[in-house]
Amino acid sequence: MEGAVYAIGRNRIAKIWFDESEASLQRLRRFYNALAATSFRFEIPRIHEIHRVEGRCVTIEQRLAGTSLADLVETGHVGLDDARSTLVDALAELAGNGALPAARTLPVMDESAPLYEGSEDFSNALADVAERRLARFRRTLDSAVEELDKKVVALRARLHEVDSRRRSVIHGDLIPGNILIGEARTPTAVLDWGFFTTEGDPAFDGAVAASLFDMYGDGALNTELDLYAQLEDRLGYERETLLVYRAAYSLITANAYDAGGNDGHFAWCVGALNRPDVVDALLA
After folding, report:
1. Is the domain of 129 the same as that of 237?
2. What is the Cα–Cα distance from 95 to 211, expressed in whole angstroms?
3. Same domain for 266 and 142?
4. What residue stretches are annotated with the Aminoglycoside phosphotransferase domain (predicted)?
5. Looking at the structure, do residues 100 and 204 belong to the same domain, yes or no?
6. pLDDT tens digits along 114-133
7. CA distance 170 to 103
8. Residue 265 and residue 257: Cα distance in Å, rounded?
9. Of these four, 32, 55, 89, 277, which has the most CB atoms within 10 Å of its CB?
10. Can you give the residue range of the structural domain that contains 31?
11. What's the Cα-to-Cα distance from 171 to each of 74, 174, 194, 258, rounded to whole Å?
12. What is the reported pTM?
């Protein structure tokens, strides 16, 4: 969780950030301004003011209308099939708006520099951050991921091979809780950009969103594979591409929340990196 959010009237919220600096929030503000200039049919956050209060940054932002897709599913107001279809609708909208160079200025996760600082190529930039994460967390990953070095070497080549060369803004954390739905049961807003927001192949966003939709439920794998099938059918993404991007995301984010790998996210990532279909796509 990035911070605590409080309503301050009908049209504004205040967000108290736990760790973000003023400089990083100014960068995010510029990104949101660029994003707002696109032709999305849903709203996106807007930062109106940035303040420093008792050592923490506080932003005043636009209050966005709607109910989260996650809440609607939990309360039974939206069925799982409709929720999955809505997710693909949002991914299609993101993919269809083209490149957004402003997204290249953002770092991912807790990286200090933008993803593209060392390379102008999306596949190389992903491979670079994967190798940096490996160097940082090798001891934890080495004991959990089978044939780790072989997979990391293969990843750079496979990322280059599967890259469609299409470019769009990538949300990077498009979970049902980050999609707001209006009375017409269509997306009204997409929230919480920044964790893995960048510009790149829209199939990467599809692969990540499909895997995040249900991470820990009894039917999680079936849900992921069903969403892959929808992405293949509706957006033309190839299954092999989605699986390679699943591997990249899993390696890069495995230790995002616990350096020692003692949390559910690490286990979820390692499970994917050792999963037969992911391994076959990566080592093909």
Report:
1. yes
2. 18
3. yes
4. 11-225
5. yes
6. 999 989 999 999 999 999 99
7. 8
8. 7
9. 32
10. 3-62
11. 23, 6, 7, 22
12. 0.95
